[in-house]
Amino acid sequence: MQDKEWILTVWGVRGSIPVPSAGTMAYGGNTSCFSIEARDELVILDAGSGLVPLGVQLARQNRPRRAHILFSHLHLDHLIGLFGFRPFHNPDMEFHLYGDVGLRQWLERLMGPPYWPVGLKDFPARLVLHEVKAGERFSLTGDSSLTVRTLRGNHPNKSLLYRLGSGEKSITYALDCELSDSMATALAAFARNTNLLIWDANFIPSDLQPGWGHSTWEQGIALRRASGAGTVLMTHYSWEYNDDFLREQERLAAAKDPAVCFATERMEIRL
Prior knowledge:
The chain has helices spanning 51-61, 103-110, 181-190, 217-227, 243-256; strands at 7-12, 33-38, 41-45, 66-70, 94-100, 126-132, 137-140, 143-153, 159-166, 169-174, 196-200, 231-235, 260-262, 268-270. By secondary structure, it is an alpha/beta fold.
């Protein structure tokens, strides 16, 4: 039986901090968050401030009953949306949260007094935490044919890169990863022939800061070609880059590789 169409929706495109300003409305000002509807499951990649509008939509639609949140790492720009995620207050909802070893300890420390009045155990929704080791492969609860592979990213305090796959379809999520020669080789193999590569285009080359754990759209193009990925989706833009600047970068990137796409909030990609 042919797999159903997958739908990826972009909810947040920024790195470091949200930038809600007139100059960022075209591409978006929320931090990283993506949703994937695949095989009757909802998979959420990261919980940046873009998680909040996603939660508003889910609450309005009163669906689904179960969802999965995969955390690339626990820096605040990838977690801040948890505090305003409305479905956590729905007792009929069940969420499976996946992240690096130590996920439970750090989330319980962050979500609760003195930083926030409500802790993980206080939400009416059922929250199930799964700690994952880099290199591990697992199936999502509820659909054993929807599998996730992981790779250790090159980022301060560590990051996890994910490859979600089923049958012939796959999406590789590679944010907050600085490329070295060895990292590029490992990631090209990890993303081999993936349909969609979601890439950290945080900086242009002149702004790149060694050791900060980020990359450029030029590196994303090289990685797409090395891996044979179908399309590369650029995202995690620096908060300092406004819409006019990003439009010019998108123009330059498209001239080098027509399989490049720059993420904008509420964009949908169907596989």
